[in-house]
Design brief:
With about 130 residues, the protein is of the alpha+beta class. About 45% of the residues lie in helices and about 20% in strands. Strands 1-2-3 form a three-stranded antiparallel β-sheet, with helices on one face. About 25% of the residues are buried.
């Protein structure tokens, strides 16, 4: 026969462990949402750089392409998305995509996301052999 002092101990253990388990599951889901938003921002930045570095293109074309990519593939994943294209040095172009991941908690802002990609601008060169 169980001791009367131990009666209900399983219920108390469950009351203590359930919030911790729920917090762990919520954190894992939030991490997954952040990781997916980060991957989407990186893909958008790479797509923007691919367009911006093409021969005869402009950095603004890369910026517009990155924003279109986010709009077409993940406005429900990456919120408040913005893109900035710049020329960090001669012959290079960079696209930076920022935004926020979705939040599991209603009313709370998602985790900030910032991804960038850069590359050399395509150009014609001549090779002369002596």
């Amino acid at each position: 026969m169980p001791d009367r002092r131990e009666t209900g101990s399983a219920s108390i253990e469950l009351v203590i462990l359930f919030p911790a388990l729920l917090l762990l599951v919520t954190a894992l889901i939030q991490y997954g949402l952040w990781f997916h938003a980060r991957s989407l921002a990186l893909a958008a930045a790479q797509e923007g750089v691919a367009v911006a570095r093409a021969y005869g293109s402009t950095p603004n074309a890369g910026r517009d392409t990155a924003l279109t990519f986010v709009r077409d593939h993940g406005t429900d994943t990456l919120t408040q998305a913005d893109a900035v294209a710049s020329v960090p040095g001669p012959g290079h172009v960079q696209v930076v995509v920022t935004g926020r991941s979705l939040s599991v908690l209603p009313g709370a802002p998602g985790i900030a996301v910032r991804q960038s990609a850069d590359g050399p601008v395509e150009r014609f060169t001549s090779t002369e052999t002596p």
